[in-house]
From TrEMBL:
The keyword NADP does not apply. This is Probable membrane transporter protein. Belongs to the 4-toluene sulfonate uptake permease (TSUP) (TC 2.A.102) family. It comes from Rhodomicrobium vannielii (strain ATCC 17100 / DSM 162 / LMG 4299 / NCIMB 10020 / ATH 3.1.1). The lineage of its organism: Bacteria, Pseudomonadati, Pseudomonadota, Alphaproteobacteria, Hyphomicrobiales. Keywords: Cell membrane, Membrane, Transmembrane, Transmembrane helix. It is a multi-pass membrane protein.
């Protein structure tokens, strides 16, 4: 069964799109990463124009993140106050990111820029997470406790505007969460992601938020940043395909619940290891497609 996408100007398989949404929703619930880092490349691999994939890829994150957040909140893995600070920065960053995409469309460089950005970010983040998670797993197997993060803030003690985040057991400056939110917002606008694959490592490794709380809080901010990004993309770039978004959202809403339940059965170190491998795998696939002859990423006209 196929449906025609008016914005992308092409037919797509309904079951395939529902399956993609379900897979991304599963990742959202398990890792708290939204799954957009996987959704946008998959849509591009399926033939969806990059500009439409970036703009529409943020939509299913809303549905899957809502259901994932509810599941994590029930397990008390949500720091609402921290999420609001992240959201404030994310709204500003999303606006800047959409402006960047608008300029890239005008000069016809969307495909190349988005692909290169994915390869660089996912290669760097995945490598860092892989090294750290393997180190933590070795300590656990030797009977040593994994590094305790809560209560250690380092350089953040010297920053002003300190506030308490009770759910995360932190007393830090509000500046790092806001800056992290801006970064995630820009990436949401440029890459069509919720930014969880960047935000979760920032929360864990820089702000020292407990892993389970980092997952739930990441999902919380993804809901609103993705919604804001979608509005900006629709108003400024007219690249949001509603029909495609609905298919992806339906699959994502169911997948997130299953992923949240599966994530509770794994240790924090195991979750980080799996996420690192997944991030590296997607980045590697995009890198291979960029360098192989006849790669699908090409410089297109200013329209798409």
């Amino acid at each position: 069964m196929q449906v025609y996408l008016p914005i992308a100007e092409m037919p797509v398989n309904v079951l395939l799109m529902l399956g993609l949404g379900g897979a991304v929703g599963f990742l959202s619930g398990m890792f708290g990463v939204g799954g957009g880092f996987l959704m946008t490349p998959l849509l591009i691999f399926a033939g969806i124009p990059s500009a439409v994939a970036v703009a529409t890829g943020a939509n299913p994150l809303i549905a899957s993140s809502i259901t994932g957040t509810i599941a994590q909140a029930r397990r008390k893995n949500l720091d609402t106050k921290l999420g609001l600070y992240l959201l404030g920065g994310g709204a500003v960053g999303a606006f800047w990111g959409v402006l960047i995409i608008r300029y890239l469309r005008q000069i016809g460089q969307v495909d190349l820029f988005v692909s290169l950005l994915y390869v660089v970010f996912m290669g760097a983040v995945g490598s860092i997470m892989l090294v750290e998670s393997l180190r933590a797993l070795r300590k656990v197997r030797r009977g040593q406790p994994a590094a305790k993060r809560t209560g250690r803030h380092g350089w953040m003690h010297g920053l002003p505007f300190k506030t308490r985040f009770p759910a995360s057991k932190l007393y830090i400056s509000a500046i790092p969460p806001v800056v992290a939110g801006v970064l995630v917002g820009v990436m949401s606008g440029v890459m069509g992601v919720g930014g969880g694959f960047i935000l979760v490592p920032i929360l864990i490794y820089l702000l020292h938020v407990p892993t389970n709380v980092a997952v739930g809080t990441s999902l919380f901010q993804i809901i609103f940043v993705s919604a804001i990004t979608t509005v900006f993309q629709a108003a400024m770039n007219q690249t949001v395909d509603i029909a495609l978004a609905l298919l992806l959202m339906l699959g994502g809403a169911f997948g997130a619940q299953i992923g949240a339940a599966a994530g509770q059965k794994l240790r924090a170190e195991e979750l980080r290891l799996l996420l690192a491998l997944l991030v590296l795998a997607v980045g590697l696939r995009l890198g291979v497609d960029l360098v192989l002859p006849g790669e699908i990423f090409s410089v297109r006209s200013a329209g798409f």
